[in-house]
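Risk register update: the risk that structure generation would not scale has been downgraded. Supporting records follow, first protein first.
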Amino acid sequence: MIRVALLFGGRSSEHSISCATAGGVLGAIDRSRYEVIPVGITRDGAWTLQEQDAVARFALGHDAAALPEVVDNGTRVHPPESAATRRFTVTAQDGTVTSLGEIDIAFPILHGPFGEDGTVQGALELVGMPYVGNGVLASALGMDKHFTKTVLEGAGVAVAPWVTVSRAELASNRELWMRRMRGLDLPVFVKPARAGSSVGVTKVTSWDQLDAALDAAFLEDRRVLVEAAIAGRELECAVLQGRDGAPPRVSVAGEIVVTGREFYDFDAKYLGAPGVELVCPADLKEQELAELQRIAARSFEAIGGAGLARVDFFFTPSGFVVNEINTMPGFTPISMFPACWLASGLSYPELIDELITLGLATER
């Protein structure tokens, strides 16, 4: 039996989404093949041992006040102290230390900073622990929208025009930076450089809205992107690393059809807010899908991807424009990443199995 440390929760604003994913994974994983050790990371960063049945019941409802969360139960999980062992230990509330045994692989389903950005991946590599998903560099690149765009441009992939500004830069020469941002055509999107799930994102249709949008984004990160809105269909596809050095595998595309909202925001993604329809598979011609899949694979390879990713596109009359790469995409059973693979013939339990298989085979 393969023993898996499932890491979820975390310090980012996407804490609850990670918890929901943990519930989905625990509900679908093949318990005859895998023994799961649920390690919930609190909003303060404490690693705690959680009960499997409690985590399996995590589910997103439609009430923003009742999102799942890791509760600090007083336990403390300790990863291996060196690469000489893969043994995790846990300290109980009374101070008693016990072994959790040898762990074969960690599955960090953490979203946002302090988990999806290479920090946890680096910690696992320091002690030689195999893990699911992207490595340190790809995770860091995928988390930072500015550097994602920079790398993709260098790889010949089309991206939306943007300006990146920090708090310090804006404070030191506001007139210069405001002129640069206003050089983009309205509407624009204002986004934290390192956040996901549309947290801190504002659509700006008039320049008098810009200051408030910047303030909202700066709550999530010290660096912010102001990005030209692209008029086109919103498409997403899922990517899996190829086995044994083979090229990446890319799913069919899904489409986000926005009918009654400004954009596909957090409430629409996770709280069931109206005005958005998810269509999978998207209606594309054979050659259009082939081109989208080619660009998705190219983007995955450009950041040095491993394991998985979701690539988000705008489909315009002049072609495909990549919006973002998500190196640990929303992974609840109803999220677009597993939905795209389901439409491509790979079920949610099979997808989990494939990710663990890839993680065990990946050299770091």
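Supporting record for the second protein:
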Amino acid sequence: MKVQKVQTQVQPHPFYQPERTTAVSHRRLILRCLPCVMFATVPLGGLAQPNSLSPNTAIESQRLGTPNGGWLPLPSFKFIPIPGAQKASESDAQSPKRPPSQQRIVDLNTAGEYQTVGTAGLELMAKEKPDDELQLIIANSLAWTGRLRAAIPAYEALTSGPLASAAQVGLANVHRWRGRDDIAKPLYDKVLAVEPENPDAIEGLELANRELSPRTLIEVGGSTDSTDNKRRILTTNHRWRDQSGAKIYEVEASGVQDSLPGIEAAQQEVTLRHHDLSLALKPSLELSMPTRYDHSLYASGAIKLADDQITLEAGRVNWSRIATNPNALRASLAATHLGASATQDFSMGTVQGKLHYYNITDGNTIFTTNLHLASVWRPLGDHFKPFAGIETRSAKFNTSNYWSPELGSGILYAGLLGEWGDSNSNLFASAQLGSGIYGEAGSSWSISAGGKHWLSNDVAIGMNLWAMSSWRDGSVYKAQSVNLNLEKLWR
């Protein structure tokens, strides 16, 4: 009797090879120690803070420098094993005899062609209902290749039978990767009520509880550039949720010190944030007020549309802090901000577009755009993800208080992002090159790296490094930064 093998542990975006041999265990040990080694070798005198906006939502993000000197936000790293390395479980029933079109999907799955399996599976499900084993194969492949919205109904179709628990864990994982740990937690609990020793549900529940727990984060950092402009920053942030887990609250106190030769300015600020995941538009609100010199109230809000594919932002922001310049900090500059972003999945990868407009109180305006492709192409293996994009920036007039290219600046860039990790550690690294396509832009490069390591169930350390070179104001411009943070969970 032929037995059909079905992979039941589901994780998207394959990056990490779970330990199966002594050699892999050694690699895992090195991975866990590397953040600590990096932490110990960083000179504290070079601490840096990227020139970036604080996110308007309570969801954490890592930020990757683009060659134009702007920022491309990356989602928080999740534990993401390589699907091909998962243990397969054998079905108790005989594998059904399938028509050639369905068997092709099974064969492609065996060969690890998950992108093709997901695409062919969506076409199949639009015309007919696959058997349970094939349904799980399709759902897994959709999740593994990042098509999380499409994976949800595929998993939900498996509500009964011997594969129901595997589908339930897969569905919980997908919700967790979409930032809905509050939805994932009861799904893991449901599986564990039937199978108390289910390892995938146990691990998923621990990761969900980690995200849902109250958290205090202390971050220190700084930056410096080729104009001798320096910034030092210290931030303390506390985040918690209500009993449902869908309402997120944050309170933050931070201070920055900017300096140029002969000029120095400092500012302290208190910030409150709220993000409600339970409402249809998932609104988020941020209120902040400097506590020294400038006592203006700044407020920003954001909503999400089209199943989180579109984000709209508006508000009044503290431009003097965004500018990273002591002259701007002394001038207490503010700006009216309007922003929009949209994400769409295609067969070639995920495309994200962003528009941001700032009307600044000094009479200037800044308009930025970014069109970014995260490709599904994996020429160097599952850990490495190619990307490419176009980034632009324009200004009404030029000022030395912040980057304001009066003739505009347009960059075409391409690079490679690598990610590695397990449930207790993660690392990422990125490198990219850019070429000027109009205005004041020129050739550029950018590199970044970072990671997070859980020292215990409740304490983690993290670090982000970044360096770049581009063309600004008729000459080469270089900048670098370092951020270090300590995170404590309260549970």
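The chain has a mean pLDDT of 83. On this basis the risk owner (M.S.) recommends closing the item.
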